[in-house]
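Table S2 (continued). Query chain:
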Amino acid sequence: MSTFEVQEGPDSETVIRRVVDIIESTRTLPLSSSVKLDNRDEVVELLEEAIARLPEDLRQARWMLKEREEYLEKMRREGEEILEAARLRAERMVQRTEIVREANHTARDIVEAARDEARRLRLEAEDYADQKLAAFEIVLERTIKTVAAGRQKLAATPVPAVDRSSEPIIAGADPTDATVISDAFFDQDEPR
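Corresponding output:
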């Protein structure tokens, strides 16, 4: 069996969790519901690192599957060799039926043990891949929820009403003409 290349540093799930922590701990700007991300470069770097590590995690899962297949093939070959050896031995010892029966029984036991071991390795590899994918799914769901909550918060924040009585009068304008004042100061979100 081969060994996996060991990655230095945290795995992709840890990196993504760090990004979520950074985003959740960002401060809102004064008088606004917008947030200021002071460490944008760090977040981008962490996301790129997570993206770079995901293929490695998946590659390790593929290696486990490949090793399982190689082990199954090896056990199948060994089983076939044992069966062939048992046949040859049985042909030489036809008069000793008990020995022939014992050899067939042993060969079947070995083949069954190989199948059981291959089944166990396949299930372990599938469990490993499923755990990695489930962990990544959880991180993505949390990120999606965080983004959705932020968007809802931005969309739900009402624009405060402006008290026009305390607004300064623009030089040369008629103080009773509200359109002059409203044209001087406009709200970009207010339809015209």
